[in-house]
Amino acid sequence: MVNVERVSGRRAFKEFVLYPYRKYASDPTWVAPLRVSQFELLDPKKNPFFEHARATLYLAREGGKVVGRIALLDDDLHNETHPEDDLAFFGFFEAENEAVAAALFAAVEAEARSLGRRALRGPVNPTMNDGAGFQLDAFDELPYVMMPQSPAKYLAWATAAGYAKVKDLYAFHLVNEGRVPERVKRLVDRARERYRPVIRTADMKRIHQEVKVLQRIHHAAWEKNWGNVPFTNSEIEHLANDLKMIVDPEMALFLEYKGEPVAVCIAVPDLNQVLARFDGRLITGILPLLRRKRIVNRARLMILGVLPEHRNRGFDLVLIDEVVRRSKAVGIEEGECGWTLEDNHAINRAIEAVGGKRYKTYRLVQKEL
């Protein structure tokens, strides 16, 4: 019999965090994230997400053995930003079988109802920026850094529990030739000649000031995107600390027009190529050293945004052209662009124009309560 219990105490919390490491220990396509990062992700004292949200963690046991987990996430800032939603989220979902999945979904649904929420959406871990959606395809591909991974059966189990698609997220694969296609290069050259934009790399010695620029662009550029929630000041400071560890300045670019930053592009080395070797136990300070030794030859384009009043000027293509050339120079041979919203046609077309091929889809589902 499946018993679902709320996580209480340090021992159960540790079981919750470490369960996937046991579950996927023999799966060659699963990349174990840094264990310390997973503990911090769910620690209200270390993750500023919890300044405006709460999480209730659940473990499923059968015969005393952990056979699944799930989190109920109630985000005040999301519901303030999107008052029409009035929903809670689920995330960190893992289950051994469909019966366990059904019991876990029932637990978070009951809590969401008790909070007065009208719907439950997920998975998010714990936000859209931390990994979202059930994976639909490309299960034999190693995931890129900070992207989710899940078996095909999870979506089937969620569907059986009454969840339906609310939005698909896309990831595109790109072979890095060191240059964009000629037809795109003509558009890039035209934009450079007409607008004279200036490209500069992020100043890592001023990273906390730089992320403030990112925050301003992100707030305006993503404001009308489905499901977007603006970064708080605490969250942007937290992001600065994360970026210091993984970013290569040659792939963190700002585009300035008439002396003002109006667009941003950040690609990060795919440190999953390193993490895959260490079962999540790698000491974080070693990551930059390993990156410099060229163990990593993949990168993920994770942020690309242009202020609304400066769109349709080709600035997105200028940034892509720049990051393609710069990343090739530091040894990046291929990459992933994503995630993007399925209906963000402008950015999806731009990625396809430079040779990106859509190869992964992640699905967010929702259930009315």
General description of the model:
With 369 residues, the protein is α+β, with helices and mostly antiparallel strands. It has two domains: 2-169, Aminopeptidase (3-Layer(aba) Sandwich), CATH 3.40.630.30; 173-361, Gcn5-related N-acetyltransferase (GNAT) (Aminopeptidase). The chain is 35% helix and 28% strand. The chain has twelve helices and 13 strands. The protein has helices at residues 10-23, 35-41, 76-81, 98-114, 153-160, 182-195, 207-221, 233-246, 272-275, 287-292, 315-329, 345-353, and strands spanning 2-6, 53-62, 65-75, 87-95, 119-122, 134-135, 164-175, 198-201, 252-257, 260-269, 298-306, 334-341, 357-368. Strands 1, 2, 3, 4, 5, 6, 7, 8, 9, 10, 11, 12 and 13 form a 13-stranded mixed β-sheet that branches. A hairpin with a 2-residue loop joins β2 and β3. α4 packs across α5, α6 crosses α11 and α7 (207-221) packs across α8 (233-246). The longest helix is centred in the N-terminal third of the chain and has 17 residues, at 98-114. The protein is globular, with a radius of gyration of 21 Å. It starts with a strand and ends with a strand. 40% of the residues are buried. The mean pLDDT is 94.
Key descriptive features of the protein:
369 residues; Aminopeptidase; 13-stranded mixed beta sheet; 12 helices
